[in-house]
Amino acid sequence: MAYEHILYDVSDRIATVTLNRPDRMNAWTPVMERDVRHAMETSNADDNVRVIVLTGAGRAFCAGADMDALKGLDPNDVRRASNLPPFDMNRRPDWQTRYGFYPSIGKPIIAMLNGATAGIGLVHALYCDLRFATDNTVFTTAFARRGLIAEHGISWMLPRIVGHANAMDLLLSARRVPSEEALRIGLVNRLCSPEKLREETYAYARDLADFVSPSAIAVIKRQLYEVPFQTLAEATIDANREMMVALNGSDFREGVASFMEKRPPRFTGK
């Protein structure tokens, strides 16, 4: 597929998805939405990809929705950019909502936040599994200052990352949050200088790609996103079931063998 608003690259078993509208600070568009989702699903289906990095070109990660697109948005058809059916709120989320498909990707997704991360840009960063940011990145939910509500599941995801009180603060005030505060409240996992962000992000990604079992990652990621809908008993039963599968898998045998033989593992994801 030829992408219009992103760049896509695979190297060293790491797929990089780059929002590519640097002249507009990577402002989000329906075309970008289509491109990002296709690239994520492509990465998920590619056995040569172990880790996905989502980042932005230029001086921003994503400064929010493209205001020109918002001005022309039909309020009676907010789903026009995606062909997904209406979300059934009477059952547990199946991670196929408009932007909430990231948890269904069975590979770790790292948001490499190279600059301003606002509004819908913050939503996408939160749906990633980890967030590495420059030490001069500024974050904002933005919605309340545009007369909008907590969109696209951020009301579910944000409190689970930063806690209820911090989420309430960030959503109600829509204030600008500096990187040091973002690290303190858990909004990001790691801060780096702008010069070191790429180096540190890809060092972490390569460590996952080279030394961690893909099958274990896929199950652990699913477990963590399922837990909010489970009791302790259900989570334990699920873990016991998955452990039996893992013990019979080739990745477990390879993990033990590589440890005993003091060599790097050769995981297959089986």
Automatic annotation (TrEMBL):
InterPro entries: ClpP/crotonase-like_dom_sf, Enoyl-CoA_hydra/iso, Enoyl-CoA_hydra_C. This is Enoyl-CoA hydratase. The keyword Flavoprotein does not apply. GO terms for molecular function: enoyl-CoA hydratase activity. Its EC number is 4.2.1.17. It comes from Bradyrhizobium rifense. Gene3D superfamilies: 2-enoyl-CoA Hydratase, Chain A, domain 1 (3.90.226.10), Lyase 2-enoyl-coa Hydratase, Chain A, domain 2 (1.10.12.10). Belongs to the enoyl-CoA hydratase/isomerase family. GO terms for biological process: fatty acid beta-oxidation. It comes from the Bacteria. Keywords: Lyase.
